[in-house]
Amino acid sequence: MNTGETHSGADTARPRPRPRQAAGERPGGPSTRGGPDPGRRGAQRRPARARGALGRYGEDLAARRLREAGMAVLERNWRCAEGEIDIVARDADAVVICEVKTRRAVPFQTPMGSLPPARTARLRRLAGRWLSERWIARYGRPPTGGVRIDLVGIVLPGRGAPVVEHVRGIG
């Protein structure tokens, strides 16, 4: 029976289903936090724990290579407020500050090209601090052979043995 009233059906309509959300999205749209953005540089970065394990493995290889070259490893992972020295070694009468860079094999990317001048300058400052706190405090004078900064680059290929390159006197 038609009474002349129009009925919009709003009170009896079923609620509309929400659109499906992609993983990591919030109801308002894509998440601004959380997982990596595929278009962002570094999106393929490994978790910090994996990077830490990779770095430790590289430092172990570097320390072994330095010992095989006749150096004595004096200290590893020395830290102060200004930063960290990966390896401090002694080569005859010289103190050697070693920066270790470990990378997985990636085309056109080598660890030897990843040490900017600012990092080299920081290593020089760290070397001075280490000398004053550790060496001079113990021996009372600078090392007779001076101080040298070396870079040990390690590339871990998908298969096969790691490739270790040691460059002496980078800065």
UniProtKB/TrEMBL annotation:
Family annotation (Gene3D superfamilies): 3.40.1350.10
Keywords: Endonuclease, Hydrolase, Nuclease
Superkingdom of source: Bacteria
Keyword Iron-sulfur in annotation: no
Record-level Gene Ontology MF annotations: endonuclease activity; nucleic acid binding
Record field: compositional bias (Low complexity): 20-35
Hydrolase in keyword set: yes
Region (Disordered): 1-54
NCBIfam families membership: PRK12497.3-3
Family the UniProt entry places it in: Belongs to the UPF0102 family.
Name of the protein: UPF0102 protein SAMN05421870_113111
